[in-house]
Write a structure and sequence with these properties.
By secondary structure, the chain is α/β, with parallel strands linked by helices. The protein folds into two domains: 245 residues, Glycogen Phosphorylase B (Rossmann fold); 171 residues, 3-Layer(aba) Sandwich (Rossmann fold). The strands form three sheets. A seven-stranded parallel β-sheet has the order 3-2-1-4-5-8-9, sandwiched between helices. Strand 14, helix 17 and strand 15 form a beta-alpha-beta unit. The longest helix has 26 residues.
Length: 450
């Protein structure tokens, strides 16, 4: 048997790149080779950010970085999901076969044996299928979100959503399983994306069925219903989370001074605020959040990316230098494991959700789009390790609402206990060799050798 060689092709946002690199490190530890395909735009950003030691660490390993153009100009807006998705679908499929030939020509004994994609990159599975290369889907969100997307036809047939844009037809709530609470159909992961992307998603899920494996960055105990409904899903969250500390594909330099600052704080005293790589607060909302952190009179660590600082101004009354620290980006997994962190005000992206669970930290949920509403549902209604934040009629979450919910979360001993229980579940699956999740990864790797 030859050594498996994976061509990993993530959709080029941080929420897809992070788990894809975790997967790459996990399979390399099992003796495999990986070629990691980024867009030229992201590749240049990552290389400019990375220290020379990081580059040597990566390039000297069994993970090789390659890139292709995404079809957009450097000044184009890449936070526009629809714009980026359709530009990639027009551009990258034309170049991928030639790139595969070039990779295979470098070492005839280590040709690509399997293409692994995240959602929105399913076109690569079609190319791989034509070339006789096996394919797998690495799902960057929860297993439940994948199950929901895979059930779109059933939702249409049952009259839950319309077939044109995926929006709810009826107002009554739906139940994913008799053992689960009711869910608002407005929280289905495609409802915030619009008709054009919904049409793309329907086609994308159909294309992803070319993949014989659907790999999920989760653990079975957190989402048992999803795994009971689809035998195609395989959880490998334990091995992946164990490899999440090092990520040379990150777009931003991590400000590690925050770790030293956290060391100076009391245990369970710091409010950590981060909304991921894409979300930008409107000026009124930015002001309310800043004032809420001021009113709370607690230390806070707030991740404010450059796009937010360009878009907003801190209110005059804001006094962050007295008790808080504002940074551009952090080593989030280390932050959430720090004993000073009391709670996590989060957009509820899946990577952040898993990292928060692994840190045993309760949440304040502030979802913006896509699967984040499903994740909030699990945090608040299933695992019960957090609370949601309610908007006013003008769509703004007030400083008083933030203040009230922080106090409720910090005052709930039951919520803290449940958060620690979730931490035990996740950590156990990260650390115990030979558990089902490592066996799933081994079985997948062995399948690529057949």
């Amino acid at each position: 048997m030859g050594i498996p060689h994976f061509l990993v092709i993530p959709y080029p946002t941080q929420g897809h790149l992070n788990p894809s690199m975790q997967f790459a490190h996990a399979v390399v530890k099992h003796g495999c080779n990986v070629t990691f395909l980024s867009t030229e735009f992201n590749h240049q950003r990552a290389m400019m950010k990375a220290a020379s030691s990081d580059q040597e660490n990566l390039l000297g390993s069994k993970i090789k970085l390659v890139s292709l153009p995404d079809g957009l100009d450097p000044e184009d807006e890449r936070r526009d999901l629809q714009n980026l998705v359709f530009s990639i679908k027009k551009t990258m499929p034309l170049s991928l076969p030639k790139l595969i030939d070039e990779i295979n020509a470098l070492d005839g004994n280590s040709k690509i044996t399997c293409i692994v994609v995240t959602v929105n990159m399913g076109w690569a599975l079609e190319i791989g299928s034509r070339l006789g290369i096996k394919g797998a889907l690495l799902w960057p969100a929860s297993a439940t979100t994948l199950t929901l997307c895979d059930s779109i036809d059933s939702f249409i047939d049952d009259g839950v959503i319309d077939s044109e844009n995926g929006l709810p037809i009826k107002t009554q709530k739906i139940q994913l399983s008799p053992s689960m609470p009711l869910m608002d159909p407005k929280d289905l992961p495609w409802c915030s994306l619009g008709r054009v992307y919904f049409e793309h998603l329907v086609q994308e899920i159909q294309t992803c069925r070319l993949a014989q494996w659907w790999l999920c960055n989760t653990v079975h105990e957190l989402e048992p219903v999803a795994f009971s409904t689809s035998p195609r899903l395989s959880p490998i969250g334990g091995p992946m989370l164990a490899n999440s500390d090092y990520n040379p594909t990150s777009f931003w330099e991590e400000d590690r001074t925050c770790l030293h600052w956290l060391d100076q704080q009391q245990p369970k005293s710091v409010i950590y605020v981060s909304f991921g790589s894409l979300s930008v607060l409107e000026p009124n909302q930015f002001t309310e959040l800043a004032l809420a952190l001021d009113i709370l009179d607690m230390p806070f660590l707030w991740v404010v990316k450059p796009a937010n600082e360009q878009h907003n101004a801190y209110p005059h009354a804001f006094k962050e230098t007295n008790k808080g620290k504002i940074v551009g980006w952090v080593p989030q997994k280390k932050v959430l494991k720090h004993p000073a962190i009391a709670c996590f005000i989060s957009h509820c992206g899946w990577n952040s959700t898993m990292e928060g669970l692994s840190g045993g930290v309760p949440f304040l949920c502030w979802p913006f789009r896509n699967d984040q509403f499903v994740n909030k549902f699990f945090i608040c209604e299933i695992w019960k390790v957090g609370l949601g934040l309610d908007k006013q009629e003008n769509g703004v979450i007030s400083k008083d609402e933030i203040n009230k919910k922080v106090e409720l979360v910090l005052g709930s001993e039951d919520m803290k206990a449940r958060s620690l229980k979730c931490k035990e579940i996740v950590i156990e699956n990260m650390e115990k060799e030979g558990r089902q999740y490592t066996r799933n990864l081994n079985n997948f790797i062995n399948w690529t050798k057949e």
